[in-house]
Design a protein that fits this description.
Elements (H helix, E strand, L loop, with lengths): L3 E7 L6 H11 L4 E8 L5 H7 L5 E6 L5 H11 L4 E4 L5 E2 L3 H8 L5 E3 L2 E4 L19 H5 L11 E3 H5 L10 H11 L4 E3 L6 E4 L18 H15 L5 H6 L12 H14 L4 H15 L2
Parallel strand pairs: 1-2, 1-4, 2-3, 6-9, 7-10
Antiparallel strand pairs: 4-8, 5-10, 6-8
Helix pairs in contact: 7-8, 10-11
Amino acid sequence: MPQLSVMIPVKNGMPYLKSTIASTLFAMPRDSELLVMDDGSTDGTGGFLATVKDRRLKVFRNEESIGVAAAGTALLGQATGEHVARMDGDDICLPWRFSVERRALRGVDIVFSPMLLISARNLPFRPHLERGLSVDAVPLHLLLGNVLANPTMYGTRAALESLDGYQKTHAEDYDMWLRAATLGIRMRRIDALPTVLYRRHSSQLSRSRPWDRKSADVVLEASFQALAGAAIGFEGSASTVLYNRPRSNQPYPTDPDIQAFADGMLSACARLKKDDRRILETRLRSIYRL
């Protein structure tokens, strides 16, 4: 059994996919496998993958695209490693990534790590490294937004399989981490060197579908509602909280559910350790003007 299965779902990944594959294979241990799902590409992605000569690479193809959520779930079903990790088809994996994350996995089920933003031309944006988040703090931070970068995910295959894959929603990765936190899966974001160069470009899928500007996503709302109830005892409307977060230079929402959510978060925050509490309180006060 391989130690690690790295999963890359991709559709029309050229030209960035070349550096993604090369950097990921370079960083991977020998006893590992790289699983790539070509999800109905029409730009030469399949032709490029056929030229890669590395026994660790396994390529799957959908003639018709099934979407990133279903493609990610299909890859998880093909994984045989004790551990699994994700990459996006337009990012760059740094050489130390998997060794750092493997060590950090001790005592938890899934870890996430920092990343640096780069442009389409590989130029870096101004660095902004996120602080580490403990197992206790992660569920509360998830209620304020997705703080876990899917392309840096590294976890046990058993933990990922217990979630039954990604669901079809505007934010399939955010939804998965909400469900994981509700089930008590132990997740943390580590303090470490960046492990991924995350590319920002005009054709990026995540930039075309900002989840918090949409509505009537019943899948995401149900997952958010479940975690909010379990973590802070919130019984109000998940959709109200998700789609009406206070925004800069906008009137503060007066809905009682938003106030109840903010109060519940502040109360739960008080139970965290000092450093965790300070980080979460800063986010709460910046968003909800507490």
